[in-house]
Design brief:
Layout lengths: L3 E16 L2 E12 L5 E6 L9 E6 L6 H15 L2 H8 L5 H9 L1
Antiparallel strand pairs: 1-2, 3-4
Helix pairs in contact: 2-3
């Protein structure tokens, strides 16, 4: 059997939403893999002055779901806690460059 199932799991997970004039949708299916390796994150309304911002991410798991699930559960909070990002989140005039720096760091 190896890293593949005898037959694919074709059940689909679907999610959609409408927020602040933005519509989004996603769908995932495990397929032939032993476990679902991919994960996603969809968060509307970030803290502070970024309440009108949203965060969307898709994490492509390879050889397992641990890293992709960990990223989906923790990456946004890690970004928000960086000095550059948190400083931008409390300022009225949000600096896109500071937010980008917070994401990179």
């Amino acid at each position: 059997m190896g890293a593949l199932l005898d037959k694919p799991k074709t059940d689909k997970y679907n999610e959609h939403g409408d927020w602040n004039g933005l519509r989004y949708g996603l769908s995932s299916m495990q397929g032939w893999r032993i476990e679902m390796e991919d994960a996603h994150c969809a968060v509307m309304g970030l803290p502070g002055s970024l309440k009108d911002w949203a965060f969307f991410a898709v994490f492509d798991g390879h050889a397992g779901e641990r890293v992709s699930s960990h990223c989906a559960d923790n990456l946004l909070e890690t970004i928000i806690q960086t000095e550059q990002f948190s400083r931008s989140a409390v300022e009225e005039d949000v600096s896109i460059d500071e937010i980008k720096r917070g994401i990179r760091d």
